[in-house]
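Q: I'm writing up a methods section and want to include an example of the input and output format. Could you take the sequence below and give the corresponding predicted structure tokens, formatted cleanly so I can copy it straight into the document?
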Amino acid sequence: MTQPKTGAETGAAPAHAPRASLQRLVSCIRMDEVCVLQGAPVIGACFAMADFSAATLLTIAALVAGNLCLVAHVFVVNDWAGIHGDLQDPRRASQTYVARGENAARMGRLAWALLALALLIFGLVSPASFFIASTIAVLSAVYSFPGIHGKGVPVLNSLLHVSGGTLHFLLGYAALAPISPHGAAIGCYFGLVFAAGHLTHETRDHDGDLHNGIRTNAVAFGKKTSFFASLFLFSAAYGWLTVLALLGFVPLVLSMAAVLYVIHLRAAWMALRDDLTYPAVRRLQTVYRNIHVVIGLAMLATVAPW
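A: Here is the clean output for your methods example:
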């Protein structure tokens, strides 16, 4: 009996090939980082939330879905635009989309598809959320796109992160309430933290960025300057949140930021003592990320109308 020929023998693609191809493409999205960045807009929605009605919960569900697509778009654009440098960095090369078998054209189409889906969802949430999401996408393009490449322009890259972090909080706030000075003041805390965290990231990646000719703040001004600028912005964020708590803009329990700041300072001193090596800065990042997870959970626990 003649055996049936396989897809490889006939030249036809296996039936599961399109699905496998899509799965491979989606696997190139940095989902761990995408999920981490869901916090700010959800917290923003909680600050604006008046009740737990079905309409409110549906809006928050749409907010999360839209933000997943929007943040995924931001990371895909960043990876698409920075592929040449990433391939030359031993710490990043194995994690690139090229290493996973993808190409720039398909990543570009994925980025556009994610943006279109995100804007469609936010268009259904509220006009303000749609406008903010569009603005975040523009900031992402300024940061990543070849020719503009704000990532490699010192100071500008930090301003983009301050703006993006603040808008990310307001993205959630605007889903449930008009933007107010009160909401914008709270959003500034997130902008400061986001920019400070990225300056630490630049400090950590100084050697790779220098090798690839990316003129980050750390490359332009030195690792220690970038590190101390990051610490200054973190200090401003802790101080600002404490002031907001004492003024009654946020729950008083959030004044604990002043205590957590001491833990951050100790971790920063240890990183500096170890000459800001890659592992030392990674340990610092773990400490301050955990601190801000605690602050975020405290916000969720005390702000939402449980």
